């Protein structure tokens, strides 16, 4: 847990903070037109638009999420009353980000400011120079295989580290995906991972009747009536990210039984049989088992284990990885142990 701090508390603190900027908020529209260039990129989830603002004075570029005031309201409490069934909570997103910034958490963006005019609330963070991991996958020139595994390994080490550290401070993200992991360059040219969009996050490790995240990333236990472990659900989603980074494809479209033939095949026959029978999207005449290294297949299989009690963990202190019946940790797998400073950190 966050030492007694709740998501609602954090959202309330942010609301208090931004209300003190009221004199600046109404000037945002004129600032945007006179000193910034604002370009909407694409519709986001819910009712948000994501764009960029470039400050002409020093060419500082920020990513700006624009949310309608009629939807986001004036704070977490009012939003909860107006949208009680919403799975995505924008003030929780802002509150989590502010709290993680205060902790000095390295794998999130800095909250640069919150602005508001008569129609919209704007949340500003630094712009990721290389976009998100979905963009990386769509534009990756290296085909699946040994070289690509070496390229993605440093990035996946950071992804797994970020998810693990979130769990260690009591946060389950519940919307881990390619789209919610940003990529930017460090000063040394290497990749730097940033996790975004905490609107579905929770401080409860045990959840029930709450299906969260994108369909392809949802742990199958979310679709049952039993209580599920939100940390293990995050780990499952991280496994889907790894699969997609390695193959430029998803293992399935949905994890609800009877909704996707690929998922049903794995449920019936297992992951090893699936990769023997499934061809690569990027090389349609080649089967997955022919291009992925055995050590990566082993890791992906453990992360995508359909039974949560047998799924790999990320070494979190809440899981027993030492005892005779302990849970396997991804960090103990051969593919992860190959990560070292000599591996390429190239982005493409």
Automatic annotation (TrEMBL):
Molecular functions (GO terms): ATP binding; protein serine/threonine kinase activity
Gene3D superfamilies reported for this sequence: Transferase(Phosphotransferase) domain 1
Domain Protein kinase, first and last residues per copy: 25-336
Entry's Gene Ontology BP terms: intracellular signal transduction
A GO cellular component annotation in the UniProt record: cytoplasm
Keywords: ATP-binding, Kinase, Nucleotide-binding, Transferase
Protein's recorded name: Testis-specific serine/threonine-protein kinase 5
Gene that encodes it: Tssk5
């Amino acid at each position: 847990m966050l030492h007694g701090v709740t998501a609602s508390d954090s959202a309330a603190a942010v609301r208090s903070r931004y209300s003190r900027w009221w004199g600046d908020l109404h000037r945002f529209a004129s600032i945007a037109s006179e000193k910034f260039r604002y370009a909407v990129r694409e519709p986001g989830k819910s009712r948000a638009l994501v764009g960029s603002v470039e400050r002409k004075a020093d060419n500082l570029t920020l990513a700006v999420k624009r949310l309608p005031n009629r939807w986001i309201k004036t704070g977490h409490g009012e939003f909860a009353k107006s949208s009680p069934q919403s799975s995505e909570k924008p003030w929780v997103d802002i509150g989590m980000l502010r709290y993680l910034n205060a902790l000095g958490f390295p794998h999130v963006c800095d909250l640069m400011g919150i602005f508001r005019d008569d129609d919209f609330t704007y949340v500003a963070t630094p712009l990721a120079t290389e976009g998100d991991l979905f963009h990386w996958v769509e534009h990756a020139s290296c085909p699946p295989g040994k070289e690509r595994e070496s390229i993605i390994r440093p990035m996946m080490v950071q992804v797994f580290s970020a998810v693990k550290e979130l769990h260690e401070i009591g946060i389950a993200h519940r919307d881990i995906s390619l789209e919610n992991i940003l990529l930017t360059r460090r000063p040394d040219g290497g990749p730097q991972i940033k996790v975004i969009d905490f609107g579905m996050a929770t401080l409860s490790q045990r959840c029930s009747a709450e299906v969260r995240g994108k369909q392809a990333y949802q742990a199958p236990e979310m679709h049952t009536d039993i209580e599920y472990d939100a940390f293990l659900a995050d780990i499952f989603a991280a496994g889907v990210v790894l699969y997609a980074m390695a193959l430029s494809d998803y293992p399935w479209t949905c994890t609800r039984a009877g909704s996707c033939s690929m998922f049903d095949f794995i449920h019936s026959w297992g992951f090893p049989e699936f990769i023997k029978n499934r061809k690569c999207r990027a090389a349609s005449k080649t089967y997955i088992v022919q291009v992925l290294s055995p050590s990566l297949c082993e890791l992906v299989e453990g992360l995508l284990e359909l039974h949560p009690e047998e799924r790999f963990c990320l070494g979190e202190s809440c899981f027993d990885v030492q005892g005779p019946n302990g849970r396997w940790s991804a960090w103990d797998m051969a593919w992860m142990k190959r990560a070292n400073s000599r591996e390429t950190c190239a982005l493409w």
